[in-house]
Amino acid sequence: MKKVYLIVCSLMIGALSYGSEIPNKTVKNLGVITVEDFSKVGVSKDKVIKANEIIKKSKNRYEYLLLDKKSKELEINKCILEGIEDNWDKVYALVDEIGVIEAKILKDRIKAQYEAQQCISQEQYLKARNIALERVRKAKLTENNKTQSK
Hints:
By secondary structure, this protein is an all-alpha fold. It has one domain (2-149). It has helices at 2-21, 35-40, 45-83, 88-119, 122-149. Helix 1 (2-21) runs antiparallel to helix 3 and helix 3 packs antiparallel against helix 4 (88-119). The N and C termini lie far apart (61 Å).
């Protein structure tokens, strides 16, 4: 159990220290949608940065909760290997804890989606996505035409 705890703590500390090295104000794309696509539908760069930060925080929290869930599942497996007859109460408690973790994941996902929609409306997102998909489709057609002409 100490080894599992040590590994989980090491991963979390490593992730936190790596995350602190990344500059906050650089904005990457939100998937295939670029900042330029959002600007074409009237979303400012600051709002895209804020939405990107919300998504990153949500993703980090999800990964942390997922690690916690996996550690509980490992603990359940350990109880089963040690003999389930003596560990029913502990297994039931761990299953309840996993349920709480899954509820936190769902709540956090809903909250992050709401917060991101405060920065970028669903209409703006859909319009920007359509622009991005059209851009990708045109680039793919251009690439296909170049390879066919060779």
